[in-house]
Amino acid sequence: MTEFFQHLVSGLSVGTIYALIALGYTMVYGVLKLINFAHGDIYMVGAFSGMYLSNAIGLSEEHPSFLKTVAVFVGAMVLCAGLGMLIERLAYRPLRHRPRLTALITAIGVSFLLEYGFQLPPLIGTGNARFPPGPTPAFFPPPFKYVGWDLAGVTVSNYDVISLLVAFGFMLGLQWVVYRTKFGTAMRAVSFDSQVAGLMGINVNRVIAGTFALGSALAAVAALLIASSRPSINPLMGLMPGIKAFVAAVVGGIGSVPGAMVGGLVLGLAEEYVAGYAVSEYRDAIAFAVLILVLLVRPAGLLGKTRMEKV
User: Can you give the pLDDT at residue 308?
Assistant: First the structure.
């Protein structure tokens, strides 16, 4: 039983990270019907942004500071939000009325650009301050010391608790933005019919850019949470989490904010229990097994709704 609860803690910790990244996929798809495959690489940029900011202001495990930690999170979120808006403006907006396959291929191209652009030889700086960071893994300075508690044989760390609280806080905040604010109402209107929303006076371009900014900021939060407890980061670190988060969004029902949260948690728990009780090599494969199983039973996802489309 102790082992069961230990895997539960680990699965929830990983699942919330998948859920935060999946929210970016589901928000963009809900508004544009576009799978932004560059989203996992924005997650990677968030980790490196946090590393650069931490080194710049002197935040580390030896010199912890709550205000500096908040500054790093806010700074990385702002940088990733700006990057998300820039990608939408330069890569996706010109293709908005083109076939969806064109935008999908462009998204894959943007993903490769970020991945391999960050692996170029450094142009400026040295050590962890070099940019681009290059292919060698870099060290992310943990914002505070690791503290573990033994609860009836179950080890829970301060990183697990903080990750869960921060992730759920941001997810609840997003729910409030989508369903309780003027911007959220505009977002849902654009998702339903962008042309009619534009005729009603909604600035569609601004809403779509804001959606990219929100999703990218949440990806930065996920990156900082995972990098704080696993401090080795590299330009390809967003590849597998990005794919798994996409799977989580589809499992939960892509286009549904609660579905992204549920899908992330389901995927994190399934991955952890399979690795713990079966074979650890199946940790990555289980995500796709869950995807196939859910799509066979509920093609729209766990919380998704089937919509009729005219052809």
Answer: 57
What is the Cα–Cα distance from 139 to 55, expressed in whole angstroms?
A: 10
Kindly state the tokens that stand for 29.
Answer: 């798809």
Q: Quick one: pLDDT at residue 309?
A: 54
Sequence-separated (6 or more) residues with CB below 8 Å from residue 199: none
Mean of the per-residue pLDDT values of the chain? 87
Q: How many helices (H) and strands (E) does the chain have?
A: 11, 4
pLDDT band at 306 (very low <50, low <70, confident <90, very high): low
The DSSP bridge pattern shows strands 138-139 and 232-233 to be: antiparallel
Could you give the CA distance from residue 47 to residue 41 in angstroms, rounded to a whole number?
Answer: 10
| Cα 239-14-131 angle, rounded to 5 deg | 40
> What one-character DSSP code corresponds to residue 136?
S
Domain boundaries, the chain: 17-117+156-235
- Least confident span in 92-96, 199-203, 252-256, 259-263: 252-256
Which SS3 state, helix, strand or coil, does residue 161 take?
A: helix
Cβ(268)–Cβ(11) below 8 Å: yes
Output b/e per residue, 90-115; b: 16+ Cβ within 10 A: ebbeebeeeeeeebeebbeebbeebb
Q: The tokens of 55 are what?
A: 């080194």
Cα 232–Cα 233–Cα 236 angle in degrees, nearest 5:
135
Q: Which residue has the higher pLDDT, 280 or 49?
A: 49
- Are 224 and 53 within 8 A, CB to CB? no
